[in-house]
Amino acid sequence: MKTFPKPLTAEEERAFLERYRNGDPEAKRILIERNLRLVAHVAKKYQSCEEDPEDLISIGTIGLIKAVATFDSAKNSRLGTYAAKCIDKAILPCRIFSGAGVKNPAVSYGASNLQRSKSCGNN
C-alpha cells in the first residue's frame, strides 16, 4: 500500500496557507497532498464491506479541497481540525444516499418525506 506524505508542521501550514492566499497554486497542491492521510483516517470510520475504500477517499478528498479553499486561519485552529469536519460532510451524504448504514429509510428521513418521483417514470 502506498504511504501518505507526512503532515505539515504548524509553521509549515501557516506558511503554505499564506502562499495560497497570495495566489500560489503550488501551495494549494502541497496543502492538499500533505493532508491526504487525514482523508484516509476519516474515511476509515465510514468503511464497510460493500464500499470501496478508494471511493470514500476520493469523496473525502473533495471535502479536503473545499476545506483548503474556505479555511479561515484567523479563527486560531489548524487546517486539519477544520478539514476533518469538511471531509465528514463530503462522505456522509454519499453514505446515506447509497443506503450504507441506513436500515430503514422511513425512520431516517421520516415517512412523510418519502414520496415517489414522477420525473423518474414512477406514476
Automatic annotation (TrEMBL):
Family matches, as Pfam families: Sigma70_r2
InterPro entries recorded: RNA_pol_sigma-70_dom, RNA_pol_sigma70, RNA_pol_sigma70_r2, RNA_pol_sigma_r2, Sigma-70_Factor
Gene3D superfamilies membership: 1.20.120.1810
Domain of life of the native organism: Bacteria
Annotated RNA polymerase sigma-70 domain residues: 55-68
A single MF term (Gene Ontology): DNA binding
Keyword terms of this UniProt record: DNA-binding, Sigma factor, Transcription, Transcription regulation
Gene Ontology BP annotations: DNA-templated transcription initiation
PANTHER family hit by this protein: RNA POLYMERASE SIGMA FACTOR RPOH, SIGMA FACTOR RPOH HEAT SHOCK RELATED
Name under which the protein is recorded: Sigma-70 family RNA polymerase sigma factor
Organism of derivation: Candidatus Limivivens intestinipullorum
Lineage: Bacteria, Bacillati, Bacillota, Clostridia, Lachnospirales
